[in-house]
Specification:
alpha+beta; Outer Surface Protein A, domain 3; 3-stranded antiparallel β-sheet
Length: 96
């Protein structure tokens, strides 16, 4: 389950390139290409290193004119899609 404190990071089994503001990703395992728009490309660049959902959200709110609730919804949708395709790893820290 993805929460605000979940850490998101791109997997190593892909390569990507920025083309005219959009990010094109090749999944090396499946050979499938993916494309992200400008906002998606910003998120993709952020998650090359582990970032929490809150960190990504705060960066997007500072960079784009978007309502916080819309940002939250759309960010979670993208994270779930990227996770389902195996392009990102979601880490939830547990405390003992």
């Amino acid at each position: 389950m993805v929460t605000a404190d979940s850490s998101i990071v791109a997997t190593k089994d892909q390569v990507s390139s920025n083309l005219a503001g959009e990010e094109v990703i090749l999944d090396l395992k499946s050979g499938v290409y993916y494309s992200l728009n400008e906002v998606g490309a910003s998120i993709w660049n952020l998650i090359q290193e582990p970032r929490t959902v809150n960190e990504i959200r705060d960066t997007l709110l500072a960079e784009y004119e978007v309502e916080p609730s819309q940002c939250d919804r759309e960010l979670l949708v993208l994270i779930h899609q990227l996770e389902a395709e195996g392009l990102v790893e979601v880490r939830n820290e547990t405390t003992a």
